Amino acid sequence: MDPDALLTSHRSERLFSRVLRSTDAARYQFAKWRQFRLAMCRAAQLGQLWMVQQLYERHPKALNGATALAAAQCGELPLIQWVHDTKRHLLRVDYYAAVFKAFEVAAVRGDLNTVQWLVETFPSVVLDIGVLVREGQLQAVQWLRDHATYQCKTGATDAVAKRGDLEMMAFLMENELLDESSCAMDLCAEFGHLEMKVGCSTDAMDLAAEFSHLHVLQWLHENSPERCTEKAMDRAAMNGHLEVLRWLDEHENAGCTTAAMDLAARMNHLDVVQWLQDNRSEGCTTQAMDGAAKAGHLGMGAPTWRWIKLQQMGIWKS
């Protein structure tokens, strides 16, 4: 029996029965056992409980840890429950690998019923609530907090900050589940989420400047003790955010480096290059000309290159 035959026979009980009978007639017991094992694993991947049951009736030893893991990856609760009722130890193989996989799949799908069954059936297993947090499953997270032993691994808070999930962030803060690092607010700044008032680092203003979130910059300037660094103006210049540059120049004291004009020239932001020339004293390096020249080969940087060249020649034109 070719296990791949299940892909075409799983909707036909008659065809499936014929495949089973032909396998039962196999001469060699080891070959038969191997075919049943592979077939059962494939049936579990398809989520076909009735097929797994028929295969099990003919060859119970074919049900093993691989089938349990396949059932977990499929995420079909009736199938997972059947495996547990039939050979419950299989879900504990490899340090509860099937349980953790089933939980992960349920989290992605928002399948609260499966989450609840796993918690009630395996109360001693410490589940990662961060999986649910990353997927935005607030209802499941709230239920898990009250009914399970859990942990929240690093990185979950970052995902919440990136998508601006205010309800989830509030829940994490209330239950002291925020990551110890301060990158959550930095990511809020990067993605423009003002509502999340979490402790931040200097990266917050730097990232807000890089991505032109001026309203975030203004809020951080008024409410956060952390200031920006030279990276703020350098990155804003690189991305052509002239309004942000003007605001930073007026309200912050970090300044910039020669990288600001170098990067602006390379990216063909002539208005930024001109503004930096008129308003800042850092200047540029030879990389400004080199970058503008390279961009010019693509038909973009010629105006910037010519302007910088004129400045070097002492011919001031704006």
Offer a concise description of the structure.
With 318 residues, the chain is mainly alpha-helical.
Task: Provide tags for this entry.
single chain, 318 residues, mainly alpha, Ankyrin_rpt-contain_sf, Serine Threonine Protein Phosphatase 5, Tetratricopeptide repeat, elongated, 21 helices
Q: How would you explain this protein's 3D organization?
A:
The protein is mainly alpha-helical and 318 residues long. Among the domains are: 154-222, no CATH class; 229-318, Serine Threonine Protein Phosphatase 5, Tetratricopeptide repeat (Alpha Horseshoe), CATH 1.25.40.20. It has helices at 6-9, 13-24, 29-46, 49-58, 65-74, 77-87, 93-109, 112-121, 129-134, 138-147, 156-163, 166-174, 183-191, 203-210, 214-223, 230-238, 242-251, 259-266, 270-279, 286-296, 302-312, and strands at 127-128, 150-151. Strands 1-2 form a two-stranded parallel sheet. Helix 5 packs parallel to helix 7 (93-109) and helix 20 (286-296) packs antiparallel against helix 21. The radius of gyration is 30 Å and the shape is elongated.
